[in-house]
Design goal:
The chain is built from 21 helices and 22 strands. It has 652 residues and is an alpha+beta fold.
Length: 652
């Protein structure tokens, strides 16, 4: 019998009901990312006040039970009566989607929250939210429960001060979110980022949830120049201070800061539009890259730094070791999707191109020594790239089968659909042997890696491609998926990688790092993660990367056999079965397990626990990789001294 479908089946979601029904449409997810986004939406309103010139301080506090308070000293949300709604304007803002002062360009010339759904969405997804507004020597307070106001009109009182501002206090709704535990590190990084982007604003972040409360105060008079210096803190700058450019034209404001480092071969360019991180770049990034390539080529030809008149520096030559922050502000940004990860305004490309061309040309002409340093670095990168290309072509001529021949040590699976296949990257022959015997040959492949792979953080492209273990890894996974290497050989200025398409180029949709539970195993895991982060970041973004979680202990008592994956679990098991006549085996290596034990605990999809690698904050990850794997010893020593007391375990 066909299902009834008529007018009565059409449901209209009123007010904020739609947000509670489909929260992911508004904040991306109901996981940790979506939860943290609630704080960003409230803080962004304060930052919009700062960009308009009315706010100098923002306080963000997380209290026990994950109650968040955001206080600013801006103008305060209007509290006079809205003519159409007959309510205080703040109530309209808090309870109505697409209501705000950001649409006509009168309340704000530029802002991040252009969709006008931010704070109302936070209200809808909070168990309770309180807003307190101070302006015009009056204070207005309203309390909401799951988006609905406690009373029709909140409480007005007169105050004996000219101080203005807005306070928002909210508690996330536990029936909506998978977790209500905010991620302090991620929020801290975003607040620090905002303080860099808005020169001089003070942001105070307090986390009172733990036994020892923490407080961070961020205020950077250096703006994005200080941002670049912060990124390069553990690296060796080619010149100092960074090159800074700031121009305004036709309502567009462009800020650029750039610096090269001498001991680093990756590119790190961070882009923003109206303080929103555009992780996928966009037209402002394309305009910057085009201008950078043209200006340095013109400078190099003028001073005869390029001997071969038929050659020019490509974008890739000039990106090696480049760190840059690009921030644009405009009235009507066009973002691709609600997630706002890519700027689409076509006119921005030409504006950024023109302003960077003008500013950078003036700089290298008045500072020719710095211009020569940049050109010489690009020249070295060009020579390495050409030498690598010739070596690859020679290798292909020697054996036409090389690009399609899988590594001999790879134990492949029989399944041909990559979506159903997984590959385990295993440390050493011993563990590889156990994994090969214990696996399901239908869909699980094993690639044993001999010793420690190359630390790509300290190596140029030619060294990386010459390393046998990395070559085996690339060939097994699928060479086309390792875009970070192929892009170094690609001269397309406007090519921006798409992490979603990478799965079509993989031979396995699950890539699992499986190393021993000791210091050497952790080091090998870090080396592999460094490679994937630097040269195959799209694999991580596509959700294809995992870390196996083998048990640390086997606990036996009589006929009872239990596995513990950490010390806390071991203590729990001992409390349950008693500590008398208990045999505890500590697994230092995967090779110590029998194949059936390895399958049962670590490889069986029905029983195993795997950690999926994600990029919640790529910039923070970049800093950690540079710190731990880079050339500078002193920052690494300071890091070890700072965190040595909190290490969970260490083998001796």
């Amino acid at each position: 019998m066909p299902q009834k479908y008529g007018a009565e089946q059409i449901k209209v979601l009123e007010g904020l009901e739609a947000v509670r029904k489909r929260p992911s449409m508004y904040i991306g997810s109901t996981g940790k990312n979506g939860l943290n986004h609630l704080i960003y939406e409230v803080v962004d309103n304060s930052i919009d006040e700062a960009m308009a010139g009315y706010c100098t301080e923002v306080y963000v506090t997380i209290d026990p039970d994950n109650i968040v308070t955001v206080v600013d000293n801006g103008r305060g949300i209007p509290i006079d009566t809205h003519k159409e709604k007959g309510l205080p304007a703040v109530d309209v803002v808090m309870t109505t989607l697409h209501a705000g002062g950001k649409f006509e360009g009168e309340g704000y010339k530029v802002s991040g929250g252009l969709h006008g759904v931010g704070v109302s969405v936070v209200n809808a997804l909070s168990e309770e939210l309180t807003v307190i507004v101070r302006r015009d020597r009056r204070q207005y307070t309203q309390v909401y429960h799951k988006g609905a106001p406690e009373t029709l009109i909140g409480k007005f009182i007169d105050i004996d001060t000219d101080e203005t501002g807005t306070t928002v206090i909210f508690k996330p709704d536990a029936t909506i979110f998978e977790t209500t535990e905010f991620t302090s590190e991620i929020i801290d990084h975003r607040l620090k980022e905002l303080s860099f982007l808005n020169r001089g604003i003070k942001i105070i972040f307090r986390d009172n949830r733990y036994e020892t409360p923490t407080e961070k105060i961020y205020q950077f008079e250096g703006g994005i120049n200080a941002y670049v210096e912060n990124i390069n803190e553990s690296k060796t700058p080619l010149f100092s201070p960074p090159i800074y450019m700031q121009k305004s034209r036709d309502g567009y404001e462009v800020e650029v800061s750039l610096q090269y480092v001498s001991d680093y071969y990756d590119e790190q360019v961070v882009t923003f539009a109206n303080n929103i991180r555009t992780r996928e770049g966009g037209t402002h990034l394309v305009g910057f890259r085009t201008a950078l390539t043209r200006v340095i080529n013109n400078f190099s030809r003028k001073y005869d730094l390029i001997k071969d008149k038929d050659l020019s520096f490509t974008g890739n030559d000039l990106r090696e070791g480049l760190t840059a922050v690009i921030s644009v502000r405009l009235q009507n940004p066009q973002f691709e999707g609600q997630t706002k990860t890519k700027l689409g305004n076509s006119e921005v490309k030409g504006i950024v191109d023109s302003l960077v061309d003008e500013g950078l040309s003036d700089f290298v002409e008045t500072n020719p020594k710095v211009g020569r340093l940049i050109a010489n670095k690009a020249l070295i990168a060009q020579r390495v790239r050409e030498a690598t290309r010739k070596a690859q072509e020679l290798a292909r001529r020697k054996t036409s089968l090389e690009s399609t021949t899988l590594p001999g040590k790879l134990a492949d699976c029989s399944e041909k659909d990559p979506a159903l296949c997984e590959i385990f990257l295993v440390e050493g022959d011993s563990a590889g042997g156990s994994a090969k015997q214990g696996r399901d040959r239908n869909f699980q492949a094993i690639l044993p890696l001999r010793g420690k792979v190359l630390n790509v953080e300290k190596a140029r492209l030619d060294k990386i491609l010459a390393n046998e273990e990395i070559r085996s890894l690339i060939t097994a996974i699928g060479p086309e998926a390792i875009s970070g290497l192929s892009s170094r050989m690609d001269d397309d200025e406007e090519k921006l990688s798409d992490p979603k398409s990478v799965l079509t180029k993989l031979r396995y949709h699950k890539i699992v790092i499986m190393t021993d539970a000791d210091v050497d195993g952790a080091h090998i895991r870090t080396l592999l993660l460094t490679f994937f982060f630097r040269y195959a970041r799209e694999l991580i973004e596509a959700g294809a990367m995992y870390i196996a979680q083998p048990p640390l202990y086997l606990v036996k008592k009589g006929n009872t056999k239990r596995y513990a994956f950490n010390d806390k679990e071991l203590e729990k098991i001992q409390a349950e079965i008693g500590k008398d006549n208990v045999n505890i085996q500590r697994y230092k290596g995967l090779g110590e397990m029998n194949p059936d034990q390895l399958w049962e605990t670590t490889m069986d999809p029905d029983k195993r626990s795997m950690l999926q690698i994600n990029l919640e904050d790529a910039e923070e990850a970049d800093e950690i990789f540079t710190l731990l794997m880079g050339n500078k010893v002193e920052p690494r020593r300071e890091f070890i001294e700072k965190y040595a007391k909190t290490v969970r375990w260490i083998d001796v």
